[in-house]
Fold:
Amino acid sequence: MNALAVLAVFFSAALLLSAPIAVVIGLSAFVAVYAAGFEPMEICATSMLQGVDSFALLAIPFFILSGMIMGKGSMAKRLMDFASALVRFLPGGLAYVNTITCMLFGAISGSAVAAVSSIGSFMIPQMQKKCCDRETAVAITVCSSTTGMLIPPSNIMIVYSVAVGGLSIGALFIAGIIPGILLGICIMAASYIVIRKNRAPREGTLDMRLVWDTFKRAFLSLMLVVVVLGGILCGIFTATESAVISVAYAAILEGVVYRDISRRQFLEILAQAAATTGVVMLIVAASSAMSWILTMTNAPARIAEALSIFGDSRVALLIVINIIFLFVGMFMDMTPAVLIFTPILLPVVREMGISDLHFGIIMISNLSIGLCTPPVGTCLFVGCGVGNTNISKLTPKMLPYFAAMLVAQTLVTFVPELSTALPRWLGMSS
Structure:
């Protein structure tokens, strides 16, 4: 049995045994390297060290920390109040408030899980009282949270940039804005159809004074987006430096201006962020070892040869790639999936004339759906916990929102200008 077969068998077996994904990847790479006749300790240790030896990856722990600070404080509540003032005149307005708040929160935290836990904790009970049942409220929250994977800043975009090997993180951030907004619009369209059947009442009329008051309360929170993206676009600091700025900004805002986080809570947040960062970096390191053995076994070329049956049909290739990612997203978290499949599939799509930027957005938006699907969907399980429900009750309510996400995914896949036009217009690589 060759090394690639050993890797596939061991990886599948470990995954079925529900081992932690970092352990699954690391041990699979170790066994495959040994089967290939190399010294596994030396190869794996070297590959893992090189995998995390990246200045760009320093942005991840800082964005994780800033997202946790925002989740503990009142920034999410202020954003929710502002979103509510904008759409309170619509029937079942809280459903749209939920999605808009998740989009705004994603734009300042870059964390889907943080959006579910922070926004869901107070939005789900309110929605249940005023516009829909509990499971529908959870479904809207879970699916809306994925917009934070596309709307910058996004940790997974940093991981993809590292996997590609030098793609501009700033260009990726900008490329995700329109697809992220499109995803939010599709989810709100699904909410309109669902809420209309329930004949939910309006929250009130459009009150510009209320809009202005809530905007003023949320202004400093919204300014974080301007600071992070504006600094990158203007060349004031890099994406990694912007992550540090976001931590300092969030800490000062929540600890000094709003005074929502005590010193003790801040220390707890630091400990949680360190633990989360450790898990992410271990996955990155283990995936680097797996990438090494995949390269040595010529896996990318073999897959490219298998996909060559589609000839010059870009449409057929993109359909197959989307199906692959939809399946992978059901069983694997986003970070290892990006690190493993980017070096495998990127050469194939490049030959078809698909840019690295467009492929990255296709991959990230597709894998975001996996955050909402069993058996590994992180946001799905967090949403069930926050909403006090279970997957069997929730799944039927998720179907309209899955359909909406697939519509957005189809548009992102087959209309590359949605991803590439804005970076090109701003003079960034596409």
User: Anything to note?
Assistant: The mean pLDDT is 83.
